[in-house]
Design brief:
Helix content: 40-55%
Distance between the termini: 29 Å
Radius of gyration: 16 Å
Order of helices and strands: HEEHHHHH
Number of strands: 2
Structural class: mainly alpha
Largest sheet: 2 strands, antiparallel
Strand content: 5-15%
Length: about 130
């Protein structure tokens, strides 16, 4: 309520299409991947050129680390706890703070978010990024 950035949590059009088609991932056996005997194989629609895939991955990572900074700044948890939660609870290989610490830290995140500029509320930099950069 009253959060000017609330739209950052809306699903993408692609996600909405997957849900409408009943492609809900492992639970339905299909989604961005087809699950064949437990193995995840990219579905035809998920095969992307490497540069496109890399841009999508970066956007997802930036949205996650940006939210992690917001959560930290709002006192939800400290950076170590957020990293641990995403590793243990969401299966990420590294938490967002650790991942970006190895890639230039807050300054690098801030630079990449600013480069995305007007790509929507997900990419409006968290206030704490500027302070840490």
């Amino acid at each position: 309520r009253g959060d000017p950035l609330a739209d950052r949590f809306l699903p993408s059009v692609l996600q909405e299409r997957q849900v409408e088609a009943g492609r809900l991932g492992r639970k339905t056996g299909a989604g961005f991947y087809v699950y064949d005997g437990g193995a995840a194989v990219p579905s035809a629609g998920a095969t992307l050129e490497p540069d496109v895939r890399d841009r999508i991955v970066e956007r997802i990572e930036l949205a996650i680390v940006n939210e992690a900074y917001r959560a930290r700044d709002e006192g939800v948890a400290d950076a170590d706890a957020i990293d641990r939660a995403l590793r243990l609870g969401a299966g990420h290989p590294q938490g967002p703070f650790e991942r970006w610490r190895d890639r230039g830290g807050a300054a690098a995140v801030l630079e990449r978010l600013r480069a995305l500029g007007d790509d929507g509320p997900r990419f409006v930099p968290a206030e704490g990024l500027s302070a840490d950069a």
